[in-house]
Amino acid sequence: MPRSRSRRSAGAPALRRTVADLRALAHPLRLRVLELFAETPRTTKQVAELLGQPPTRLYHHVAALERAGLLVLKEKRQNRGAVEKWYIAVGQHIDRASHQEGSAASRRAARRAVAATVLEQAKQEIIAIPAGAKEAALISRMMVVARPAEIPLIRQWLLESVQALRAEFHLEDRPAEPSGDDCERWALTLAFAPVRSAHGTRRKRGEGGE
Hints:
The protein is mainly alpha-helical. The chain has one domain (about 20-205): Arc Repressor Mutant, subunit A, CATH 1.10.10. Helices cover about 45% and strands about 10% of the residues. The chain is built from seven helices and three strands; from the N terminus they run ααβααββααα. The protein has helices spanning about 20-25, 30-40, 45-50, 55-65, 105-125, 150-170, 200-205; strands at about 40-45, 70-80, 80-90. A three-stranded antiparallel β-sheet has the order 1-3-2. Helix 1 packs parallel to helix 5, helix 2 (about 30-40) crosses helix 4 (about 55-65) and helix 3 (about 45-50) crosses helix 4 (about 55-65). The longest helix is centred in the middle third of the chain and has 24 residues, at about 105-125.
């Protein structure tokens, strides 16, 4: 089983935060902003330029992410009489953490909002694959049937596999932005979640009735 590394990795951080933090992420623009700050320290103006957005549109999003503790101020620099603020994303794991905050319904709603945002972004990226791409997108879906005791092991293996990918190809050492034809930007979206089984539900209801 591949071993994870403690070093901060490039790309969107996995998050383990409170319900309020999850709600702060439940916006496609904020998620993209967080991804760019996770790659390397940047200013709000630099992120706005990368996204093709006016900086004024991002200031309140950056402020919301900072209040949620998802962004931290790394340093301030003087530039032509103005003070530039450089932020970096804080990476943790989206998990079952912070159960105590909010009601169960509130936590479920927050997780659904983040999941919908992440998957919608992945869908848009796949739809917008440029013509003539050198490599085809890899899209796969599989159903996992396992005993309850095996699920945490599978989940941990997936997490460590992502860390091993970063380590194997030194992804955290790559430049934040593709330069010329030397680099391309690809996205990896991973979801491992329980699903309802209509067949299993019917079978349980029918037990003892035949």
